[in-house]
Amino acid sequence: MKYINNNFFVEKVNSKKLAKKFDTPLYCYSYEKLKKNINNFILNFSKLSPLICFAIKSNSNLNIIREIKKFGLGADVVSKGELMQAIKAGISPNKIVFSGVGKTYTELKYAIDKKILLINSESKSEVKQIEKIAKSKKKIVDIGIRLNPNTDAKTLSKISTGKKGDKFGVDEKAFIELVSYTKKSKYINLRCLSVHIGSQIFKNKPYERMLKVIDRIISKVDFKFDFIDLGGGIGISYKNDNKKFNYANYQKSIIKHLGKYNSKIIFEPGRSIVANTGILISKIIYIKKNQSKNFIILDAGMNDLMRPALYGAKHRIIPINKTNKFSNTTYEFVGPICESTDKFSSIKKFQKLKEKDLLIICDVGAYGFSLSSNYNLRSKPAEILIKGSRIIVAKKRQKLSDII
CATH number for the 31-274 domain, one of 3.40.50.450, 3.40.50.300, 3.20.20.10, 3.30.1370.10? Predict the structure, then answer.
């Protein structure tokens, strides 16, 4: 995705033509970027030969998942709906892991019936629920236990998942007790130790601390785990500043601490696979001026892209056509939703804008459309996948008549 003669292109397609044909707001994804990200992930962990389970929650578009599946990836799911979507996309059940703190009886029963690889349990109550279902079906069910390693990922508090105050996983004492409990069960087959400490991690130190905890606990319980699920969390730069995670150091740390156990490593990447594959094209409805700034009112709102309102996340905003004429006024980019938090960014010295101009919100491939809603009774945007010069409608624009 780049500018060609001052026009922004997604692969070989002018994004201005996409806006004209499909209207705005419009999600658009690059297949080549998706392919590059997946191959990069596989290459960087080649010494581990891991099972890579794409986190469906980051992007649940059926056509995107179908493309991801072609690279041999499995799926990490957190609901029955995501599990159904992964299977519909063609992902083999023996490459699917089911995570989450609140799996219902119905969800667990469905997962057991589908014979998925692992249900990563997060409490003793959940393990007992699985055992009850397994007993009624006279089956042995493969599970993992999610450990809370009390590791601070030094990321946003709202996306931290591995500290002792977080709701995810069980502490060391409970983990050891559950390992002992499953050993005595006729219907539970414990196969995996699972962890996930958060998202947007750029430094290796949090992972190093996590790996040390895992190493110590495995030695302590003296149990052979077939799998060690390290979750995801590798960060991507939303600032276009070339900030990158050091995959090589992470792989070395994993081999150093866990190599001796001969367990299959599982990763659950989401953001690092799809975030920078997507853009959101939006049109300026109005420009509203006051004494200190100009409000650039877009037709995309927090219902289309929730991350800025939910996390205070920052996404770059760029013009669809470059003019190299700049304004000294501060532009505040906001949506049309009746909420003060419906704003994306405040930028000084941006390109001069006028009403009906088109803008691009960058890096929305992860937790963009998947977090979208019908708030204010607004229909969801269309999703387009670009392969070279080929335009694929990955999901049609929702009609108001479908939701009213």
Answer: 3.20.20.10
